[in-house]
Amino acid sequence: MKPAKEQGTSRAKGPAIDPSNDIEFRAVSKRYGDVTAVAGVDLAVPKGAFVALLGPSGCGKTTCLRMIGGFEQPTEGTVLIENRPMNGVPPYQRPVNMVFQHYALFPHLDVMANVSYGLRQMRPPLARTEVQRRSEEALELVRLGGYARRRIHELSGGQQQRVALARAIVNRPAVLLLDEPLAALDRKLRTAMQFELQTLQRELGITFLLVTHDQEEALSMSDFVCVMNAGRVAQTGTPREVYDTPNSLFVADFVGKTNHLSGTLEPGGVLRLANGVGLAVGGNGTGRVAVVLRPEAIRLHPEAAGRGFAGTVTHRIFLGSTVEYAVAADGLGDFLVTADRGKSDGTAEPGARVRLAFDPTALHLYPS
User: Which domains can be identified in the chain, with CATH numbers?
Assistant: First the structure.
């Protein structure tokens, strides 16, 4: 997934059509009075992709979703779906459907009536047998084949979410919009539904666009991640690219857990840390820099090992397959270390003296 301008779009000669994209934003802005919610966004979403819009509250991701769905219109720029400009097109005329955070199911209708509702509104009307057939197919896709006559209040949270999905896909949209659809579920059910959504997307082969503020959810479910900040696109790429090679301090800090250091980049690519130690990191620039290091890039050793930075364990958090340590490193500040349980469980207790070791190439440097 690339910004539209990187794919050869030329506004001077009119909009170029890229048949490989289902959704495009071209210099899209949205303002509410003096407040700019989205500022000049260029974005292209490939056909059949599972894309996550990720960012903190107020970053513009939900506004982008609503402009795709037709619930909001851009102040400037153009939104395209299947290469057709959508500015001014009402929601019911767009090839999209939406699953809301709270599902918006009709409590007075049973499961079948909820799923078939959209089909029954189509004009010219579909035959009753066609409505029945397509509704049953949608329920089978979400593994609710035997639930057609259940009432909504008789379903669990996960089952209600699947009813909302069936209702959204029964009209066969080109794009399915998901607005924080797992936010109301407990952690175990959220994980199960993440697998369900990935399986459903592969089976349907349509574009899924997920809006979330949950970094783990975005990284685990999507093919591509678009990180937003203050109404702009901060970075796009695969989950691995965004996590392993963040292009800014904001992205590094927002996506995943990080340790923050400060230092000075000296001639010859030497990073001078606050404790006076120099590390060979390469690069041509000089001056003060902000430094980010992922917790899993740090190795924990007993103090007697004699290598790495000395420190004291302040907290030990058992997380099942992993253990997290909070370590106060001498002259460097506090560090979070994520270690494999099988290798580190019992190695360090609070109060223990340890050493922290890491490869300097694992450091991410940004202008201070």
Answer: 4-253 (3.40.50.300), 258-367 (2.40.50.100)
